[in-house]
Amino acid sequence: MSAVWVAAALVVAGFAGWPVTALVFKLARTIDDRADAAKAAEAARGAEQDPAADVTVDDAAAAPDAALATAGSAAGQTVDGELTAPPVQPPSAALAGPSLPTQRILRGGAIIGVLERLGVCLAILTGQPVAIAYIVAIKGLGRFAELKETPVAAERFIIGTLTSMLWAAGTAAAVKVLFLH
Prior knowledge:
Blueprint: H1 2-15, H2 17-49, H3 66-74, E1 78-79, E2 83-84, H4 93-96, H5 109-125, H6 130-149, H7 151-178
Antiparallel strand pairs: 1-2
Helix pairs in contact: 1-5, 1-7, 2-7, 5-6, 5-7, 6-7
């Protein structure tokens, strides 16, 4: 009967861990997006409160030449006590030129993740937690060059590895405590 529980633990740890890791990646992306939005809002608030950012323009009646006052409104700017301009539109994709192909970071991560979770679960179920250090070392050495080049890859590596290992260790510990006394 214990072989059934070990097999069940390996299946749950190895294959059910992928959606959990994907969910954690999505949560991390949401947190990053909120932090970026908060930084942008803070920068905008800081620009509003910055007295050096104020632009003052003399009234059109006080301008020495009426042609200068109308030239501003013809260029898309109006003078009503302050200078306003239409919002800047980002360049279209056609003007930007051909896009470069994007390189996938951490190729093979799903397969490596399954193998990592299987190894961690098996190490805990067999009472060999030292094997987890070998798994981490092999994974880290195999990804070193890619992690060194790309900070985004390093962040994904850390988040994925920790999530994956916690899922596998939790699954193995639960099965060991509940079913394999």
